[in-house]
Every structure is written in C-alpha cells, then in structure tokens.
Amino acid sequence: MNIGNNIKQIRELNNFTQGYVADEIEVSQPTYSRIENGATPIKIETLQRIAEVLEVDLNTLLSTTKIFNFDKTANQCDFIQNQTNNNIDMDMLRKIIQEELKIIINLCRKK
C-alpha cells in the first residue's frame, strides 16, 4: 500500500473532503488529489501537515503495511487496532465512535 492510499483512507475515515484537507495544507484540490493518487512527489513537510490535519502520527502515513481494509467498518476496526498498538489517540477514537453512532441512528430512522 502506498502513502497516498493511507492518506485517502484516513481522510475518508475522518469524513473529510479532499477540498477540506487541501485548504488546510494550503494547496489546490487537484494538487491534493494527485498526492492521494501518487501522481506527484510529496515533501516531508507536506506529509507532516497532512498528518496534523488527519490527526494521526507521521508513521501512520508512512506505513508500508496494509493498515486498512476497504470496508468502512473494517477500516475503523483496523484503525483502532493500529492506534492501540501505537498509543491510542483518544480524540480519534471518540470521532470513530461518534461516526458509528450516527450511522446506527440513521439506520434506525430508516426502518
């Protein structure tokens, strides 16, 4: 798995748009898209800013192992496991739980 895939999956886990992250790191959305697609080289300073916006450590973005699956629920489980192994980020865990609760509430409302 490449860095761009890690960035994309963590961004999606946070429910951030490409535009939001691009604005936060002060690049255009097309430039940010090329970062996620691996079509442009990325400076370590830019990676650090992306990590800060996504609220993960730089090692998570640089990991070459498969951190996440493509299934959103599995993403969250894998993310929690990864963070547990690397001193869990409680704010991120709260966000994941809040997102899961929103999904459950929306599913209940549809019934």
SSE topology:
Layout: H1 3-13, H2 18-25, H3 29-36, H4 44-54, H5 58-62, H6 72-85, H7 90-110
Helix pairs in contact: 2-3
Summed up:
By secondary structure, the protein is mostly helical.
Account of the protein in words:
- The chain has helices at 3-13, 18-25, 29-36, 44-54, 58-62, 72-85, 90-110.
- With 111 residues, it is an all-alpha fold.
- The chain has one domain: 434 Repressor (Amino-terminal Domain) (Orthogonal Bundle).
- It starts with a helix and ends with a helix.
CATH superfamily: lambda repressor-like DNA-binding domains
Strand content: under 5%
Overall pLDDT, averaged?
A: 76
- Can you tell me the number of structural domains? 1
Q: Which CATH class is shown?
A: Mainly Alpha
Tell me the number of helical segments per DSSP (H or I, 4 or more residues long).
7
Sheet with most strands: none
Number of strands: 0
Compute the separation of the termini in Å: 38 Å
Q: Element order, helices and strands?
A: HHHHHHH
- Shape category: globular
The assigned structural class equals: mainly alpha
CA radius of gyration: 14 Å
Helical content band: over 70%
CATH topology: 434 Repressor (Amino-terminal Domain)
Give the CATH architecture: Orthogonal Bundle
List low-pLDDT spans. 65-74
